[in-house]
Task: inverse folding
């Protein structure tokens, strides 16, 4: 499939181009399993675009294969129509299927399975399989527990799989076996892809608990769920320190904890975390983070006094706060009251709840 035409202003032209290439791919490759995993955002205009794509794909497939399939879109929250279409193209080109379309072959759940720590709602087994495969660092036995079994049994209607997961958990089955049991029940990933995931999980099993927790915390951090990340970083620090992991590991943990606290406006806790990180490893950038966190959390008078007590004065203090002062000057224009104040407040509220979901 060739690239999305950025300059095409016609929705019809874009869709026809997508469908033309999909049809050509299908006729050349003669793949037995034409599948689709489309990702869409929630407003009505984007929904209309995707429904048009899905209707045409379904019609082509029924004509050529004479089979009955249905499909649905998985929402990602992308606010751009062009971004939605690009996301579809990226997923069509994913993996060894060389642009194969992923169709959900099982019933869509009326009530989604909610992954609270990520703020994600899953409506099908295909979406569950995708989440597990792409977020393996976040998966634990609690996530694959009673609530999931009940959802698979009542919403998906797969009592056999739910019972297998339940018996496996009661028998002390490993997390790896439980994940692979779900993925093998869904015709979504190839045997080669499942083998790659299995190898990845075997390597994870060789890590110390602190290392696995850090991978999990980092994943939350990358996804903007700072409260969950703080929870995981603090779990690491509550475990007895391991000499094998070395000082760099703990310096990174404290630093990342500080960044998360800053993004939650917890400047006092952030400053403490940065200072501890700097004690583990004398990184000038971490010292700058510490000074800036102190500056954000204290009045100017208290800040000067605190820096004086720590012998951070003169040119050193000026160099450490130079970037802070510059950013404050540049931010003045962003502090103006927006024209659509209620709309902006609503966006900030949603961002706050997204960043403070509890793991």
Result:
């Amino acid at each position: 499939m060739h690239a999305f035409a950025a300059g095409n202003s016609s929705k019809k032209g874009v869709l026809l181009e997508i469908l033309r290439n999909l049809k050509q791919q299908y006729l050349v490759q003669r793949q037995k399993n034409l599948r689709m995993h489309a990702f869409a955002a929630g407003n009505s205009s984007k929904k209309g675009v995707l429904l048009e794509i899905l209707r045409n794909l379904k019609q082509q497939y029924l004509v050529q294969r004479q089979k009955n399939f249905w499909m649905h879109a998985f929402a990602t929250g992308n606010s751009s129509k062009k971004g939605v279409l690009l996301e579809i193209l990226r997923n069509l080109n994913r993996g060894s299927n060389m642009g194969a379309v992923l169709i959900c072959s099982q019933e869509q759940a009326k009530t989604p399975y909610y992954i609270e720590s990520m703020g994600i709602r899953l409506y099908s087994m295909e979406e569950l399989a995708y989440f597990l495969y792409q977020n393996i660092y976040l998966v634990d036995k609690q996530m694959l527990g009673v609530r999931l079994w009940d959802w698979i049994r009542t919403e998906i209607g797969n009592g056999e799989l739910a019972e297998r997961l339940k018996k496996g958990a009661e028998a002390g089955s490993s997390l790896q076996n439980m994940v692979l049991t779900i993925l093998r029940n869904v015709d979504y990933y190839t045997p080669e892809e499942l083998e790659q995931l299995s190898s990845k999980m075997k390597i994870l099993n060789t890590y110390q608990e602190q290392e696995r927790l850090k991978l999990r915390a980092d994943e939350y951090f990358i996804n903007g769920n700072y409260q969950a990340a703080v929870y995981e970083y603090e779990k690491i620090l509550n475990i007895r320190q391991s000499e094998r992991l070395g000082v760099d590991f703990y310096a990174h943990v404290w630093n990342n904890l500080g960044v998360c606290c800053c993004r939650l406006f917890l400047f006092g806790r952030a400053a403490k975390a940065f200072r501890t990180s700097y004690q583990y490893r004398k990184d000038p950038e971490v010292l700058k983070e510490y000074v800036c966190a102190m500056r954000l959390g204290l009045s100017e008078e208290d800040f000067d006094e605190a820096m004086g007590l720590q012998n951070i004065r003169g040119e050193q203090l000026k160099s450490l706060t130079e970037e802070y002062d510059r950013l404050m000057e540049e931010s003045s224009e962003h502090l103006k009251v927006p024209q659509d104040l209620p709309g902006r407040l609503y966006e900030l509220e949603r961002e706050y709840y997204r960043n403070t979901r509890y793991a």
